[in-house]
Design goal:
781 residues, 9-stranded antiparallel β-sheet, 7-stranded antiparallel β-sheet, 32 strands, disordered N terminus, disordered C terminus, binds alpha-L-fucopyranose
Length: 781
């Protein structure tokens, strides 16, 4: 349905009934697309297979995922590769491989399934090759012609089915012959693996150090016609198909990892998973269920599950599905003559796709690589780095209407809670700061599926509150009190720790000390770089304020009482979160005068602006927004992938749509690989998620209590529409615009509510369960 047709109904009704019309009430996660799926086709498309090596994986392979595990598809003709990653598969990596001069554990590739499909004798080279990833369906395909036959492969991962499936077809009977070679990845002194045959299945089992993580993969192939054989010897196995009309490969897997507090609290690595067993029966049952369903039904179940989430948001910037392949589109993205609108829409939806693929209920959260890693040890171990990366992964979760992807973030920190309480106690003791009964809760940057870290060095006491911002947003966007009850212990205990950690200065201010602006370094006495430590860095001060405010608000909403609340109210005015320096900048270090006096002036982190985005404290005062603009300008645009994504969101928050758009094009041109994965470099998925959130932030903001439509619309997007975004307060928001002005919008929510909306430069109050059509006549923009 085109935008104009979608809004036609509203216009027609408006003639008869006036401006306010009854609106459909929507309960639970808000769905804005009656058609279910987005109706424009979004494909990542290529005319060459990915190279079958690490570079090909990083730059060209296409990702599938069901939250539990990811599969990188290479799309080869005679040689296809499916590489599997499971988020709990952490293995000790030998020194050097780990990126360090000592062995350390990190996320490792699970296994590789290599499909060899030799061409018929004497056949010419294949023609009409194409591989793609269909974002509307979350299905990857490969097709080509050879010897008069069109071969096609379709691949998917199913969340309800907990499986991977690939269907191979040919336009002539009996032409499907291949061997599927199954191999564990990176067997070494820290990892052993075997493959055995059970009936018609291959069963791969592996054992790893140091966490005693064990795993199992089961593989089966079903055919129409032809002959299937299974063989295994030692570490590898093979399924062979000869002369079939069609074949479907099914894969299920699991590990003995469980997201339980003991994983984080156990004193020794070997007991973290003590008592947990590989769920072999579940893995076998999943495989049996997938085979029993068969390709058609499995695919239908997958589509129903996936499209219910993906189809909620439709973005139309006027992009036309392009004839060019995605790598060609990307290479031209920032060229003057380029029309990047389709690519921008595609990139926006790709971020949503990746979040659905890497984070679903019951799984570990999306890590630094989402759930895709072909390396022996993922860069930065594939951890949950919390001075921005893990948070950025979830920035699009609420605003782009994917609430269901969020629970892993909460479940992860819930499981880690006792360990982080112990860290808080230790930290306060170390600093001689135990003042109140109870030590509270805190967090540091370095976290993983197996451990959580203490504040210090890479980021200070603000890090816990940074984690909490998303837990608050869970409630803020959904209005779900149960979500706020879940966030409450983090807010309250986070504040309890902070209320003790801040130190009174001679001038009466309360400052975090030690305090850091994440990753800012300087030369130390022995010539080595050390983290800059200065009391009261903007990052820590702003985040403490955010945490206190949210704790007090949450207490009011939930009717909670605690003696600490009065302490927070008393401390709040003394925290001095924002100082403006002599360059007109927001000071990163309160000891600086002019911009850039301390630390790297072009550092990738823009931590002094954490209260601008994702925080809100800088939005308290217009002069602070002006100062934020100065800091952003001085910092510069070009940076690592995720850092450009943060800048994009920040420029949207200071309401400079054209600059935000410049950042988007820079992120595409300089921070994105041909497969549209974000690169630091190397590949890091956070920038994808930050980029998607940034596009939403240009179109809709709600952090000040007013729903602002098109707050940072660039000149490059004069006409368009967006449906199904979400705003704080539990609203779904649809907007259409022409020549840069909102022409129609509607807000829906589960309960009727009065809400302030800013449209074309004027703020009005509307009721959300009513339909708001044309903006007020007096409004100007
Ligand atoms: C933070 C960043 C780095 C990198 C790492 C995983 O430490 O400063 O740039 O993204 O996380």
């Amino acid at each position: 349905m085109s935008t104009s047709r979608f809004f036609q109904m509203i216009q027609v009704q408006s003639r008869g009934v006036g401006l306010l019309l009854a609106m459909v009430l929507i309960c639970g996660p808000l769905s804005a697309s009656p058609a279910g799926a987005a109706d424009k086709s979004y494909f990542l498309r290529y005319d060459q297979p990915a190279a079958l090596d690490l570079k090909g994986w990083e730059f060209q392979s296409l990702p599938l995922g069901n939250g539990y595990f990811g599969v990188s598809v290479f799309g080869g003709v005679a040689d296809e590769l499916w590489q599997f990653t499971e988020k709990s598969l952490w293995v000790m990596a030998p020194k050097g491989i780990s990126g360090k001069d000592y062995p350390r554990p990190g996320l490792s590739s699970l296994c590789e399934l290599r499909l060899t499909m030799p061409p018929p004798a004497g056949a010419a080279a294949p023609s009409h090759y194409q591989r793609d990833l269909n974002l509307n369906q979350a299905v990857a395909s490969v097709s080509y012609e050879q010897a008069g036959v069109t071969f096609r492969r379709e691949m998917l991962t199913s969340f309800p089915g907990k499986c991977f499936a690939a269907r191979l077809t040919a336009t002539k009977p009996g032409r499907i012959s291949f061997s599927l070679h199954a191999a564990h990845a990176y067997l070494c002194e820290f990892r052993s693996g075997q493959v055995r045959v059970e009936g018609n299945r291959l069963i791969m089992t592996g054992a790893t150090a140091p966490y005693q993580l064990n795993y199992e993969v089961q593989i089966q192939v079903e055919t129409q016609g032809g002959v299937v054989r299974a063989a295994a010897s030692g570490e590898t196995g093979e399924l062979t198909v000869e002369g079939a009309d069609e074949a479907v490969v099914y894969v299920t897997l699991g590990t003995n990892y469980r997201l339980e507090p003991q994983v984080f609290s156990a004193a020794v690595n070997a007991s973290k998973l003590g008592g947990f067993a590989v769920p072999s029966a579940r893995i076998a049952a999943d495989l049996q269920a997938a085979v029993a369903l068969g390709w058609k039904q499995l695919r239908a179940r997958h589509l129903a599950d996936y499209q219910a989430l993906f189809g909620r948001v439709r973005l139309d910037l006027g992009g036309k599905p392009a004839a060019s392949t995605t790598d060609v589109l990307l290479a031209a993205a920032d060229k003057p003559a380029a029309d990047a609108r389709y690519l921008e829409e595609l990139y926006f939806q790709f971020g949503r796709y990746l979040l659905i693929a890497s984070s679903r209920a019951g799984t570990l959260p999306a890590n630094l690589q989402g759930t895709w890693n072909m390396k022996q040890c993922a860069p930065w171990t594939g951890g949950y780095w919390a001075n921005i990366n893990i948070q950025m992964n979830y920035w699009p979760a609420f605003v782009t209407n994917l609430e269901e992807t969020f629970s892993p973030y909460y479940e992860y920190f819930k499981a880690a809670f006792p360990a982080q309480q112990a860290i808080a106690a230790k930290e306060l003791k170390k600093r001689n700061l135990n003042q109140f009964p109870g030590s509270g809760w805190t967090a540091g940057t370095g976290n993983s599926a197996y451990q959580v870290g203490a504040p210090g060095g890479t980021s200070g006491d603000g890090t816990g509150p940074f984690i909490n911002l998303l837990l608050w947003d869970w409630y803020a966007f959904t209005g779900d009190r149960a979500a706020l009850e879940k966030a409450w212990p983090f807010l309250l205990e986070g504040s309890r720790y902070l209320a003790q950690a801040v130190r009174e200065q001679p001038d009466g201010t309360l400052l975090c000390s030690p305090s850091y602006s994440p990753e800012q370094m300087m030369g130390g006495p022995d010539g080595k770089n050390i983290y800059i430590e200065k009391p009261g860095c903007a990052y820590d001060q702003q985040l403490v304020v955010e945490n206190y405010r949210l704790t007090l608000k949450a207490a009011q909403i939930l009717g909670k009482q605690d003696p600490l609340l009065a302490v927070l109210s008393a401390q709040l005015p003394k925290l001095s979160p924002v100082l403006v320096g002599t360059s007109g900048q927001i000071k990163e270090f309160r000891q600086e005068n002019a911009y850039g006096e301390i630390g790297d002036p072009h550092h990738r982190h823009i931590s002094q602006l954490i209260g601008l985005y994702p925080g809100t404290v800088i939005s308290d005062r217009p002069e602070w927004i002006d100062a934020a603009r100065v800091s952003l300008t001085q910092r510069g645009d070009k940076s690592t992938g995720w850092a450009m994504a943060h800048r994009l969101n920040a420029w949207a928050r200071v309401k400079d749509g054209d600059h935000a758009h410049t950042l988007l094009l820079t992120l595409l041109a300089k921070g994105t690989m041909p497969n549209l994965w974000d690169t630091h470099p190397p590949f890091q998925i956070d920038g994808n998620f930050g980029g998607t959130a940034g596009i939403a932030e240009m179109l809709l903001q709600s952090h000040t209590g007013v729903i602002e439509l098109l707050p940072a619309l660039p000149a490059a997007w004069p006409n368009g529409s967006v449906r199904g975004l979400r705003a704080r307060g539990g609203f779904a928001v649809d907007i259409a615009w022409t020549n840069g002005r909102v022409t129609h919008y509607r807000l829906t929510s589960a309960e009727p509510r009065e809400v302030a909306v800013r449209v074309n430069g004027a703020t009005t109050t509307v009721r959300s369960n009513k339909l708001s059509l044309t903006p007020a006549k007096s409004a100007t923009r």
